[in-house]
Amino acid sequence: MNSSDALAVEAGLDPARRPAHVAIIMDGNGRWAKKRLLNRVKGHEQGADTVRMVVRASRELGISVLTLYAFSTENWQRPEAEVKALMMLLKRFLKSEKQEMLDNNIRLNAIGEVERLPGSVSTLLQETMQATENNSGMVLNLALSYGARPEIIRMVRQLSAKVAAGNLQAEEIDEETVSTHLYTRNIPDPDLLIRTSGEMRISNFMLWQIAYAEIYITDTLWPDFNRAEYIKILKDYQERDRRFGKVKNQ
Length: 250
Ligand code: IPE
Ligand code: IPE
Ligand code: MG
Description:
This protein is of the alpha/beta class. The protein is 43% helix and 14% strand.
């Protein structure tokens, strides 16, 4: 048994039934701050600590891919000061966690329109992705300036260009073709999708990839989300019967 299997067992999890890919819509930073009469940015700062916790816990428990929805294409419409603060926090996170990722064999990946990020953020992002590209313990996949519809549009454009150039037949397009033209081409679909802060919506996140994800929505605001609750959700996931349209035990 390797160390993450041992830690998973210690946490009450069955290594064989662990989700390979956990995706999280990290929501509720603003409301966490508002409850305390603080500026929303304080909520994002506190949320960054939860990000560190969830990355560490996922690695320890043997999750293969952790996707964090950190900034949506729609989030560009927030007040300029908030967007700036989020970009600053992202830079701070990348700087402070680079060594942690190297030490723990974590590979950083990003999905989304990363070319829209400020130059200093995208430089740091590229550097960190490059520095960690040979790591194999876990993929930390950050959804940054990500929206599922723009991702789908990009895929459709790429495929139509190939068809127009005569390099692809329309009849050849199948699920595999579509999957390999999304940002997530090298990543399996999420098994478990968690959303914090109680909102019952998807907010333009991975519309194609979550076709059969198990969904868990918790009322906990992201800055209050902790390791114990994360493990509780992973246990809940393990108890579920994933039928994929078939009947039990088929
Ligand atoms: C999630 O918290 C962080 C981002 C979307 C960047 P919010 O900022 O959406 O917090 P609420 O939903 O306003 O509480
Ligand atoms: C979704 O949260 C996006 C991220 C967590 C990055 P939002 O707070 O932006 O979503 P809505 O506005 O509640 O749909
Ligand atoms: Mg929100």
